[in-house]
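Worked example 3. Consider a protein that binds adenosine-5'-diphosphate.
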Amino acid sequence: MTARATDFDSLDELGSGRFGVVDRVIHRDSGCLFARKRIRLSFDQQEHELQQREISVLKRTVECPFVVYFYGAMFHDGDIHILMELMDASLRQFYLAAYSSAVNMPITNPCCNTLPIRDIKPSNMLINRSGRVKLCDFGVAGILKNSIAKSNVGCQLYVAPERVSISMATGGGLGAGDEPGFTTASDVWSLGISLLELASGAHPYGSWKNPFHQVQHLTEGPPPSLSAEAAAGRFPQELNDFLSCCLAKKANDRWRLPQLLEHPYVGGVVAMETELRDRTGQFVCSVLDRCDSSSLAAVGVTVKE
Ligand code: ADP
Ligand code: MG
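Given these inputs, the predicted complex is written out as structure tokens:
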């Protein structure tokens, strides 16, 4: 199918983020539904480059079953429109609408299999009514250089301790892909924080007041873990253990991807994948049927990182 940007009608808003709005659209001739991300083009060359990179990374990940399908990108009215597979909610929207540990398990395998995708966080983990979890937004954080430094050094909720230390040591600005310290070890940290957030229903570092508070907490405090109440009987011991492997404070102590994929928690999840998907799918449907799509979309607007 070849299509132009004007062949699509917007149905409703799915959410909004740093670069623009994502809406559900219908292709008029075929009746097919898509998610369309509209990225405002800035005149800033750095941003422009970044946005171009996002498109090229998207192109490379087309065939991965754990990544939302990318149909194409079009320029329109000074914006870039990215057409993707339509999912039903982000895990962030989902857990805020209906917290349940049920959504926790099926995400581990997709995440481990798509690292280093960068920018790992619950709003980039999408779920559909079949209980499938897929990641989106590839490469954005890895390439963000000036744009993050410009918008804020602070309160990047999923960033690893070594990355905030580097950024402070170098006078601000979080490291981009080619700077020391930005390795898959940092992605493993972000994965751990995201899993912890989804498991406990709240971000473990929800209370930072400013970037200095963040740096102090991240570098000097103990690594976050499931609270005793959250852990009590509700989660398998393997999850606690998996989290501590992801959330070692020193990047060198953190487990690497091949090790994580061998971890009993991931093994257990893979072994019961079909059953899990069915169960998660039923749960997702029951929640979404009760939810108003505009209330889900509103969740994204308030994301502050
Ligand atoms: P962020 O990831 O920082 O929240 P984005 O602009 O990437 O910002 O996306 C905004 C929101 O739109 C996401 O949080 C998610 O809820 C929703 N969204 C993005 N892509 C899709 C998609 N393919 N299907 C359904 N919802 C999506
Ligand atoms: Mg996103």
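Take a moment to read the result before moving on. Residues 17, 123-124, 136-137 surround magnesium ion (ligand 2) (CB under 6 Å). Residues 273-290 form the longest helix (18 residues).
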